[in-house]
Amino acid sequence: MFIFADSYNAIDDFHCRRIVENYPDAHFINVPRVDHHVTTVFAGAANLRAFIDGALTRDMAELRGIARQIRKSHWRWQSRILQYAMRRFPRLGAAYLAGSDNRELPREHWRYFPQLVSHIAETFGAPRAVAFFEEHASLIPHPAERRLIGAFLTSVTGARIAIATTHDTALVYDASENRAIHKAGPLTPWEFLVEAEFHGAEVTLLATIGGTRFLLSVMDDRSLAFASKGRRESMTFELIHNEDDEFTIRHNAKYLSANPAGSVACDRDEPYKWEMFRFRPLGGTTVP
């Protein structure tokens, strides 16, 4: 009899040892850091065949080798190892996550992105951290969380997070004309990135000028501008996430649209390509 279990799971370890004590022909093979999910990790016809062949020859070394190979290739073991490392050795955990080819790990553990971004920035430099964020931001589940990690990226690297359009431009507030536009390239001294600030299900769009936040409103002509007497209902928006890791910005059933000529208006009844946005570092760095 061969028993596979995780000795770090106290209940399973207790039961396995009682079985081994009472049945001399029982052999315990440890499968560490998979908790109570041994059958899930070992599932699959090919794995079963390998275990049957090893059991028929009663080769304990081979069975341990098969178990080790299977568990280390399974995402659940990788996830548990990552959690353990981040608790005990966060720098090693961040290095492990940064070097993993398994994109499900950062998707499942997106909350580790701050440690991960810090590790990459300290080890390889800020441009590499910015590039990592650009490549992996789609794994963060929601625009609000994406904005959170983007804000942390800003604090670590100095990169500014823009609301990017499908024209490869950024939403910008032009203070000289008091209106929001979208543009590519460097900003003039009187242009400021449009930012999103989350308040539960509601979002406000704003520009920070000299440390002061100026909330933007939808005007009567459907443009986006600062209104000194703007009503709260004209300043609140919804960010609606789609399956392509983009989002739309909606106000009173109308969608914000970035027109190809550079203007911005909240006047569309349905969202199409021009109404799609995402968060990205302004002038993000590409690392070869």
Brief write-up:
The chain is an alpha+beta fold.
Commentary on this structure:
With 288 residues, the chain is an alpha+beta fold. 39% of the residues lie in helices and 25% in strands. The chain is built from 10 helices and 15 strands. A 4-stranded antiparallel beta sheet has the order 7-8-9-10, with no helix packed on it. A 4-stranded antiparallel beta sheet has the order 11-12-13-14, with no helix packed on it. A 3-stranded antiparallel beta sheet has the order 5-4-6, with no helix packed on it. The model is unreliable at 284-288 (pLDDT under 50).
Q: How many runs of DSSP E, i.e. beta strands? A: 15
Distance between the termini: 53 Å
Specify the number of helices: 10
Oligomer: single chain
Q: Low-confidence runs (pLDDT<50, min 5 residues)?
A: 284-288
Proportion of strand residues: 25-35%
| Radius of gyration, in angstroms, nearest whole number | 26 Å
Strand order of the largest sheet: 7-8-9-10
Major beta-sheet overview: 4 strands, antiparallel
Structural class: alpha+beta
Whole-number mean pLDDT: 89
Considering DSSP H and I runs of 4 or more, what fraction of the residues is helical? 25-40%
Element-by-element helix/strand order: EHEHHHHHHHHHEEEEEEEEEEEEE
The global form is elongated
